[in-house]
Amino acid sequence: MQQGQPMIVMSEDSQRVKDKDAQDYNISAARAVAESVKSTLGPKGMDKMLVDSMGSVTITNDGVTILQEMDIDNPTAEMIIEVAETQEDEAGDGTTTAVSIAGELLKNAEDLIEQDIHPTAIIKGFHMASEQAREEINDIATEVDTEDEDLLRSVAETSMTGKGTEVNKEHLAELIVEAIRQVTVEDDEGNNVVDLEFLNIETQTGHSTGESDLLEGGIVDKDPVHDNMPTEAQDADILLLNEPIEVEETDIDTEVSVTDPDQLQQFLDREEKQLQEKVEQIADLGADVVLCQKGIDDLAQHYLAKEGILAVRRAKKSDLEFLSEVVNAAIVSDLGSATAADLGHGDLTRDDEDELFYVEGEDAHGVTLLLRGSTDHVVDELERGVNDALDVVAQTVSDGRVLAGGGAIEVELASRLRDYADSVSGREQLAVEAFADSLELVPRVLAENAGLDSIDTLVDLRAAHDEGDVEAGLNVFTGDIEDTNETGVVEPAHAKEQAVTSAAEAANLVLKIDDIISAGDLSTDKGDDEGGAPGAGGMGGMGGGMGGMM
Ligand SMILES: Nc1ncnc2c1ncn2[C@@H]1O[C@H](COP(=O)(O)OP(=O)(O)OP(=O)(O)O)[C@@H](O)[C@H]1O
Ligand SMILES: [Mg+2]
């Protein structure tokens, strides 16, 4: 090889961004994502309306939903979205908090890099601070009685404040706590285990949210297939069927040519016989009720009605799966090999007004939370809010530790981390301090979103904590500083631990990168950002989705 000639190993289309440029690029992408959800944080946070390329609309306050629905097309931004997704999987709530803290950590890291502090020192400091924060959370958290329903309701209400669930939060909190209680069992060691598999959420439009209800067992939102069928069945043997009760069609296209009417009649007779046999098989199994996921032929409907069997067709797959737990039945996919043991046992009652069936198992295993709202958008957002609340109540029941909300925990953590920073030597100390500052983003944004002065609020909160008031938080409705644990603004400790840890890990992941090598334009959405230097204009991929959001 000749001297002095650079060796080209990358293709012509590929792009490479190095060192400071790479850091700038990554940090600004990550911060843009965090920035986009900040305004939804807390009880006074606003909602976002997201319109996808098909024109369908989602209105939500839920951090992870916003990020998933936003058409983000930037590799770094996607790492931050992963933070929200991990938080959603692990804790169910706190996604906005986690992402906002990650963004703030990166913002503060950027300042440190400006001061010539090497990213590895920052990474180490952030890691130490996050470990320390976990310990402190454990120390600050209050152990609670997991049977204390008032407390569990407060946890649910805190999580639902500021969402579509807000107006009916007392009623919903009652339902949620009761639902969780019903699906909680004690394991051999006496620990509470919440099995959310036995909890089903159904939604219905056309009613007010206040009419939401908790039902024992499951529901089937269908009509009987034939008018002459019974509409109720007590002590019934129930068949869950995943096979059509129709004439079996051949896989290949066939054409039957008939030459005289008798042949045609024979042909029809055979079809009729096939259907009759299927219904007989069902009757022989002893089924009083058939809930079928597939179709039921008109003629078969007639035979079933004659046998006095209550049948429903095109039931939802998820409903059948849940009902198989409720009535303890197997889902049969081949009638021929089904036995009586596959049938479940329970009661079906009809709600004529809502046109649905309630299915109750013998020992009422499983509950259904029936959420109601006026329109689809209302119900969807309601469901997201209720899911968050279910998760936090479930965590509190199994973990038993709670923290004071309204920014109380973040300010206390920040103050303890600053003390801890004094014991850290070297440049890492500055990173630990930056970590503490980043946590205080939460009370600042809570105040900001409530139209309060964020600096004043933070100063007051710090003063209260300096005086040893560990649970001093912000009442966003009055602007007062008060003991939020006492006023019932409480959050599960596990969710906060997770938020702090995943925010730190994501920030560190981004900070560790000093070289971006991409096989093409960095934003995969070509055409709308041609030629822009990635450091400054590389956010092009996010431009469309985010431009209107901030
Ligand atoms: N009544 C209240 N007064 C003060 N702060 C509150 C109150 N209710 C909730 N909060 C605070 O609001 C924050 C939670 O806000 P929000 O639910 O919007 O975000 P998140 O839980 O981080 O994310 P998401 O719910 O979108 O997954 C917590 O810090 C909580 O302490
Ligand atoms: Mg929340």
Description of the structure:
- The protein has 550 residues and is an alpha+beta fold.
- It folds into three domains: 15-143 and 403-515, GROEL, domain 1, CATH 1.10.560.10; 149-212 and 372-399, GROEL, domain 2, CATH 3.30.260; 218-250 and 262-365, GroEL.
- It is 47% helix and 16% strand.
- It has helices at 19-38, 63-69, 75-90, 95-114, 119-140, 149-160, 169-182, 261-285, 298-306, 317-326, 376-399, 408-422, 428-439, 441-449, 454-466, 493-511, 534-537, 540-547, and strands spanning 15-18, 48-51, 57-60, 142-143, 184-186, 192-194, 199-205, 213-216, 218-220, 233-241, 289-292, 310-312, 331-332, 344-351, 356-361, 367-373, 401-404, 472-474, 481-483, 490-492, 515-518.
- The strands form seven sheets. Strands 9, 10, 11, 12, 13, 14 and 15 form a seven-stranded mixed β-sheet that branches.
- Bound molecules: adenosine-5'-triphosphate (ATP) and magnesium ion (MG).
